[in-house]
Amino acid sequence: MDKYIKTPLEEEVVRQLKAGDYVYLTGTIYTARDAAHKRMYEALQKKEPIPFDIKDNIIYYLGPTPAKTGQIIGSAGPTTSSRMDKYTPTLLDLGLKGMIGKGKRKEEVIESMKKNCAVYFAAVGGAGALLSKCILSCEVIAYEDLGTEAIRKLTVENLPVIVVIDSKGNNLYEIAPNEYSY
User: Which of 64, 69, 96, 142 is the most exposed, having the fewest neighbouring CB atoms within 10 Å of its CB?
Assistant: First the structure.
């Protein structure tokens, strides 16, 4: 089922999403990959603030390619989400409501998603050039020294994603193969 959702995410909206739903996101989302997650985690361990209010927001595991002249952003495809799994439960406990990436998640992340009513979306890997067309603005807001892995604030319109793991722990990576096996 296609759903059009505005960010930040409301808990009631997250509860209604089901594994397999096609979703089009519009609003503000943030980017962060391995190095940025590590810095945010270290800041939190020292009781320091992180660069943006994570509550009800979405992090896109993205390290865009540099923008060419006239572009807002270069290719904007997802990276493998499991590399952020070490840090994710801590961010979910702070109110993170959504993540966009590709690939499977560890059981401790899924349990934390259930506990915190969060959702994991997949973006299509290899479609970064097409996904970048849904990005209306891009601003580096933290860790500029990390280059493409700096934290960015994106404004997106109808960014297409698929619910892979819903807030109840239903996992499309486990469900879908069973539906199509003979």
Answer: 69
